[in-house]
Amino acid sequence: MTWTLTVVRQRVAQALLVLAFLHVPLQALAVWRRGVDDLSPVGFCLALALSALLTYRRFGVAIVTRLVISLVLIGQVSMLVFSFAGHPWQPDIHMYYFAILALLAGFCDWRPIIMGALLTALHHLILQYVLPAAVFYQGGSLWRVLLHAVIVVVETGFLATFAVIMARMFAMNEAGLLRAQEIAERERATSEREKRLAEELGLRATALREIVAGFRGQMEQAMAVLDRSAEAMKGESRALTGTSDQARQQTAFVSDAAAETMQGIDQLSAASNELAASINEIGRNVSQSAAGSKGAADLARRASGEIENLARSSESVGAVVEIIRNIAAQTSMLALNATIEAARAGEMGRGFAVVASEVKSLSAQTARATDEVSGQIGAMQEVSQRSLKAIRDIVDAIGEVEHVADAIAFSVHEQGRATSEIAHQVRLSFEGARRSAGAVGSFETMTARTHDAAEQLQQTADALATQAQGIRREVAAFCGRVAAA
Asked: Which of 45, 206, 215, 461 can bridge 233 by disulfide, Cβ–Cβ 3.0-4.6 Å?
């Protein structure tokens, strides 16, 4: 088994867990020797040990487990010191703190050591003021706490440095081990490849001799096939020459027909372009007409709104006139009452009667004027209603015209799209015809080249027959040399 840093920490954690559980009977023995009936220190030690075990089961040797074990061990030692309160051995139990810090260095991690030192310092400092007897025999002093703190700091510094060095050494060892394993694996793979290569070379040599043995017969058959192929190539080249001559004549006819087709398509393209331009002009005119109809409809709608506002204003004026009529009627009643009171007053109320008569006359005139205004407002409302109805009829008519104009514009647009598509297709046809003409020209050139190639093929077939004889001789010589080797 390889002792990596993780393995070492696992072994140290297991050993310290065993020590934590051994502290439980040790705590019980200390309580029993002192003759104390309080077993809470024993229960506290057991709870700490169980918490460390559960943390180890949950997290393994992670940093949280190492810190919890440090906390548990320092806490258990503190309980032992407390259990020996008032006993001459209490100062001696303090040395167990230093032993625990040294044991924590086995984790090769400075953090549990620092945590144990901090817990020890806090324990001594706090209990020095809260419960001195729980820390030092026959009481303590700040100087004793400081002395212990200095010793703990010195030990912690050395142990933390040792832990860091050990962790780095383990890391370097693991890295070297990995490199050694990689090198050994590469050497093993190289050895296996060399072994397989040697076996393959032996098999290939045997297979090569067998291949050469069959190669001679196969080449003889291939040379016979090559001779027959050369003769067939000569016949095919003669047939190809005749076919290329016929293709050259047909290509000339096709070239003339393609030229006539391109001329007709060119004329059709010009006509379709003119038709598209005319339809586009019609579309623009219809769009302008539709825009004018929409503008007239908007104006009519705004006029309708203004007339509706006028009608509402006339209604408001009618309401005001009605209020004035009511005021005039009330004024007339007041004038009548004033006249009656003046008559009762006799000579003294004569002037007041004249004023009341004038007020009554004015209220009557106001009532007549109000009636005339009310009649004029009624006539104005009637005219407004007729105007509003007429304008709404105009808006409806313009809406129908606008709808028809939109329909016409849509139809013209669709016709324009169709015409554009026709023009596009004509252009594509023209392009296709032009390419066809080019292809015909290329085909004519290829036909000429085919004729030349047929003649070259005839020459190649003759040369191939000659080379086949030479290859037959070379193969025979090669097979003889391989068999001799």
From this structure: 461
Residue ending a domain, choose from 121, 140, 159: 140
pTM for the full predicted model:
0.36
Is 179 within a domain? no
> Rounded mean pLDDT of 272-291?
66
Yes or no: say if 45 and 97 are a contact pair by the CB < 8 Å rule. Answer: no
Please give the structure tokens belonging to residue 172: 């370097």
Instruction: Return the closest-CA partner of residue 52 out of 100, 117, 124, 2.
Output: 100
Contact 310, 384 (CB under 8 A): yes
Range of the domain at 283: 237-479
Domain end (from 122, 140, 158): 140
Distances (CA, A) of 257 to 201, 250, 363: 69, 11, 108
User: CATH number of the domain that 263 lies in?
Assistant: 1.10.287.950
Tell me the per-residue pLDDT of 23-70, one tens digit each, with 9 for 90 and over: 999 888 877 876 667 778 888 899 999 999 999 999 988 999 999 999
d(CA 469, CA 481): 19
- Nearby residues of 27 by Cβ (< 8 Å), 6 or more positions away: 41, 42, 45, 76, 79, 80, 83
Q: Where are the beta strands (DSSP E) in 43-173?
A: none
Neighbours of 2 (CB within 10 A): 8
The DSSP string of 269-311 is HHHHHHHHHHHHHHHHHHHHHHHHHHHHHHHHHHHHHHHHHHH
